[in-house]
Amino acid sequence: MQDNYDFSSGTRGAVTSASGKTRITLFLDDDVLAAFRARAADSGKGYQTLINETLRDSLSPDRAPLTVATLRQVLRDVLQAA
User: Fold this and answer.
1) Which of 4-13, 29-38, 41-50, 51-60 has the lowest average pLDDT?
2) What is the C-alpha to C-alpha distance for residues 79 and 35, in angstroms, rounded to an integer?
3) Residue 45: is it exposed, middle or buried by C-beta count within 10 angstroms (0-12/13-18/19+)?
4) Can you give the residue ranges of every domain in the chain?
């Protein structure tokens, strides 16, 4: 270790750069958090990673809830093919 260090060209800021993630505070029900922690223990992934993956999957257009308009379009397509 040195006796003196030169911080004259140092800058303030985060020690590591953000990698496309944002730190937030989020309140979850205890049972939801316990379920994700249990899944994390079984899968070997972190529970926060599993929560993030679940949220990302829910945003996928393929996982969108079934609407009346979508159901009608599917039925039309099936009936026309038959």
Assistant:
1) 4-13
2) 42
3) middle
4) 30-81
